[in-house]
Design brief:
The complex is a heterodimer of chains A (255) and B (272). Chain A is of the alpha/beta class and 255 residues long. In chain A, strands 4-3-2-1-5-10-11-12-13-14 form a 10-stranded mixed beta sheet, sandwiched between helices. The longest helix of chain A has 16 residues. The radius of gyration of chain A is 18 Å and the shape is globular. In chain B, the strands form 3 sheets. In chain B, strands 1, 2, 3, 4, 7, 11, 12, 13, 14 and 15 form a 10-stranded mixed beta sheet that branches. Chain B has a 3-stranded antiparallel beta sheet with strand order 8-10-9, with helices on one face. Chain B has a two-stranded antiparallel ribbon with strand order 5-6. Chain B has 9 helices and 15 strands. Chain B is α/β, with parallel strands linked by helices and 272 residues long. In chain B, helix 2 packs parallel to helix 3, helix 3 packs across helix 4 and helix 5 packs across helix 7. Chain B is 30% helix and 26% strand. In chain B, strand 3, helix 3 and strand 4 form a beta-alpha-beta unit. Chain B is globular. Classes of the chains: A alpha/beta (255), B alpha/beta (272). The interface between A and B is large, with 54 and 56 residues.
Chain lengths: 255, 272
């Protein structure tokens, strides 16, 4: 908790929630993405449609789910469809506006690793793997990434490319035949980055209250590009913090 | 017609050492009771197939049942690592574990292809990822009509498919509702199938959104009340999120894991 009365995770989650506009159809990963998407739904974006890979469409959970398939997600959904259908008809069919993803590592072009740390055959850390992310990253019209920023997570070279952002730079997504637009924003606990419209390289656009620019540079594994008009993130509003803390409390109550 | 049998009998008749076995249930209806019975019967060298290995495969891997795993996401949802899975991959304990890794979309399509009796499915997936180079059961393919490049994934046809469901009637017709995941696909894709159910009833009352697997499409049905715990059975009991969180500490060390398995799985034959 900073002197501002909110933690770096809270400012990150609130900043991520604000990126979701109302009435968008959002495919949600578990953990930070689910928290942020539900915060958006309960504040400024009440008609956002949350889609979970378990096949629930339009879930409106009152408590934060621990998994992508908690019963609450099915009970509050507009429709529950089989898993092959959610990926084939709804995601691949081009009906998802926003894919909301986390990862263990990200590179300067927004490519993601959620597979291994170290060598694939002899990993130092075996991570869960791609899950739904490879196709969400390829096919959602827009991708939002939420990830804590450090030398360990913002790396020069991914240990494994599980999901594609902009590949090696401009034109790669088109060459790979990807139907979706790729990452438009990466939200971290230090700030917010957007891809440069020309080079596609992630560029620091916002810095969170109380964070120094040097700190962001030191937490990035490549020479960080900074926008000319770098601004400070609007601090979380009281209402956003209240709803976020109530949501998080529902998850802890389930334990 | 599906035989209504005891779980011990069903597992000993349908599952053999070296088989490829898929225990499915996407967060919902995970067949824990059947998995525990496989552990108790000390089956070995299995190829375990599952989109989300979850706690059940963590337990089966740690108990030494698996030689190989085919999967797409191996974590404890919302909690963190599967420690027994990691120990097997990172340190070869209790035995090395070969991996065949896919994405969810790919696995779902592989099951659908298996159920449809075609050798592969086609999707716009995997392109640009390193899974393209790592996984032998996927390959680029061009559309015969337009020449567009797509990705083919080979069909999955396990020796045994096992799922949990809410209920069956005395004929062995199975009813499933809530998140239905890939339950239907895996039963139809597998050579032999076992469905465990919360209860056997005289008549299946209609439920919103329910699917029915006809008795003649299922090999065996076994009653296993609370057989999906700590996952859940919609309409019967909720997901035990507290257990999923506690599993992190139980499974972190080999000793505490083995102790837990001895007490809660090995010593509990037929008492679930």
């Amino acid at each position: 908790m900073s002197e501002n009365g909110f933690s770096s995770d809270e400012v990150m989650t609130v900043a991520a929630a604000r990126e979701l506009t109302d009435r968008t159809v959002c495919f949600v990963g578990i953990g930070l993405p689910s928290t942020a998407a539900n915060l958006a739904r309960l504040t400024h974006a009440p008609r956002t449609v949350l889609v979970y890979e378990s096949g629930t469409i339009g879930s409106k959970p009152a408590t934060l789910p621990l998994s992508i398939g908690d019963g609450e997600l099915a009970e509050t959904a507009d429709a529950v469809v089989p898993v092959p259908e959610i990926f084939n008809y709804w995601l691949q069919g081009g009906r998802i506006d926003v894919g909301f993803l986390g990862a263990a590592q990200i590179d300067r072009f927004g490519n993601l690793n959620s597979t291994v740390i170290g060598d694939y055959d002899h990993p130092k850390v075996r991570l869960p793997g791609g899950g739904g992310a490879p196709e969400i990253a390829a096919m959602a019209k827009q991708v939002i990434v939420i990830i804590r920023q450090s030398q360990r997570t913002f790396v020069e070279r991914l240990h494994f490319r599980s999901s594609v952002g902009y590949g090696t730079g401009p034109g790669d997504r088109e060459r790979l035949g990807m139907s979706g637009g790729g990452p438009t924003v990466v939200i971290t606990d230090l700030g917010l980055l957007r891809p440069d419209p020309e080079s596609r390289e992630l560029t620091l656009a916002r810095i969170h209250p109380g964070v120094e620019l040097d700190q962001v540079r030191e937490s990035t594994g490549w020479p960080l590009r900074v926008a000319d008009d770098l601004r400070e993130t609007e601090p979380p509003l009281e209402d956003e913090l209240r709803v976020l803390r109530e949501l998080r409390a529902t998850l802890e109550a389930a334990a | 017609m599906a035989d209504l049998v005891r779980l011990e009998e069903a597992v000993s008749e349908l599952v053999h050492d070296g088989d490829s076995v898929a225990l499915e249930g996407f967060t919902h209806l995970i067949p824990f009771a059947a998995g525990h019975e496989i552990v108790r019967q000390r089956l070995r060298d299995l190829t375990l197939i599952r989109m989300t290995p979850d706690l059940i495969y963590d337990q089966m891997i740690g108990a030494g049942c698996a030689r190989r795993m085919i999967f797409s996401w191996g974590g404890n949802p919302g909690v963190g690592s599967l420690h027994r899975f990691r120990d097997a991959v990172e340190n070869g304990w209790p035995a090395p574990l070969e991996l065949e890794e896919h994405s969810h979309a790919g696995m779902a399509n592989r099951y659908a292809a298996g159920a449809s009796n075609i050798p592969f499915a086609v999707l716009r997936g995997y392109v640009g990822t390193e899974l393209m180079e790592r996984t032998g059961t996927l390959a680029p393919i061009s559309c015969p009509f337009t020449g567009e490049m797509l990705t083919a994934v080979s069909a999955l046809n396990p020796d045994v498919g096992i799922v949990h469901a809410q209920r069956a009637d005395r004929e062995g017709n199975v009813q499933i509702w809530g998140i239905i995941g890939v339950q239907k696909e895996i039963v139809l894709a597998s050579d032999r199938s076992l469905v465990t159910v919360e209860e056997v009833v005289a008549e299946l009352e209609p439920q919103p959104g329910a699917i029915v697997l006809p008795a003649w499409a299922v090999t065996a049905v076994a009653e296993a009340p609370r057989g999906a715990h700590p996952s859940y059975a919609h309409g019967y009991y909720d997901r035990d999120n507290g257990f999923y969180q506690r599993w992190d500490a139980i499974s972190r060390e080999r000793d505490t894991f083995t102790e837990w398995m001895d007490e809660h799985v090995m010593a509990r034959a037929g008492t679930r």
